[in-house]
Amino acid sequence: MSTPAGNERQLGLLDGAPPDHAWRVRASERARRLAVRVLPGGHVEIVVPRGTRPRMIEQFVSRHRRWIERALDLYRPAGPAASDVLPEEVRFPAIGRNYRVRYVETAAPPSLRHEDGAIRIAGPLERPVLLRHALHRFTMKEAHATLGPWLSQLSAATGLRYERFQIRRQRTRWGSCSRSGTISLNACLLFQTESVARYLLIHELAHTKHMNHSRRFWGLVEQHEPRWRELDAALTRGWREVPAWALG
User: Fold this and answer.
1) CB 201, CB 155: distance < 8 Å
2) How confident is the model at residue 44 (pLDDT cuts 50, 70, 90)?
């Protein structure tokens, strides 16, 4: 994707890269060396300095292929990989809610209603991206309504105080805590198990005392979640539990 200054451009796949539409090579004026990023959903981005020869990029991909494949195992969604495949059911294990989804063809802009464990989305069915955005907004709303009170309860129980709370759709982070005490949580936490989501909330609350991952930080986490090692490993694999439609 181009920047406002137009100093980046996306290149086609090279002969040495896998025949996968989720891979891309991007030339950047700001890049000083070749780098690779693996993103949730199984997307791979190779960032290269402008003017890098194709052969150098192919060699770079070849050297890092084993690491890329291991990372892809963590980030590929377990369900259908196409983000435009709309779900028949939306499941939020973290809060124990499941919704059947029904789609209704209309010419009007998409609208979403939910009640009694069912979601009704009305809109132009030939434009799934618009319907997917309606589901994104619903996920954000559910996350704000449920994760906020949950975080507040855990704060009171642990004595770990924060200043503000917000829900976001970060591409690579499950959550963060700023030095000013603002905790940001990824809406996709709803697709994790209850215990994994709770661990992440404890993790971010612990950052209100220690803005690092020192021994004192992990000791504080362990006071409130003795299974943190197991749950942290599950969270690392957690992007596989996020459906592709939620990442698109």
Assistant:
1) no
2) confident
Q: Are 130 and 110 in contact (CB under 8 A)?
A: yes
Q: Which segment of 8-17, 107-116, 142-151, 194-203 scores lowest on mean pLDDT?
A: 8-17
- Residue 5, pLDDT score: 36
Q: How far apart, in whole angstroms, are the C-alpha atoms of residue 89 and residue 118?
A: 9
Q: Where do the domains of the chain lie, and which CATH numbers do they carry?
A: 8-75 (no CATH), 131-247 (3.30.2010.10)
Nearest in space to 46 (alpha carbons), one of 17, 20, 70:
17
Look up residue 39 and give its DSSP letter: E
Separation CA 149–CA 91 (nearest Å) = 20
H/E stretch holding 154: helix 128-158
Give me 7's structure tokens: 């100093």
Supply 219's token pair: 């000791």
How is residue 93 written in tokens? Answer: 């294990």
Is 238 within 8 Å of 186 (Cβ atoms)?
Answer: no
Supply the pTM of this predicted model. 0.76
Structure tokens, 34: 């070749």
Question: Residue 165 has which token pair?
Answer: 């709370």
Farthest-apart Cα atoms in the chain, separation = 58
Q: Nearest CA to 208 among 227, 195, 221?
A: 221
Which residue in 86, 75, 65 sits closest to 41, CA to CA?
Answer: 75
Helix (H) or strand (E) holding 74: helix 54-75
How far apart CA 202 and CA 34 sit, in angstroms, is 36
Q: Among 187, 150, 183, 141, which Cα is nearest to 166's?
A: 183
Q: Which residues contact 169 (CB under 8 A, 6 or more apart)?
A: 136, 140, 186, 187, 188
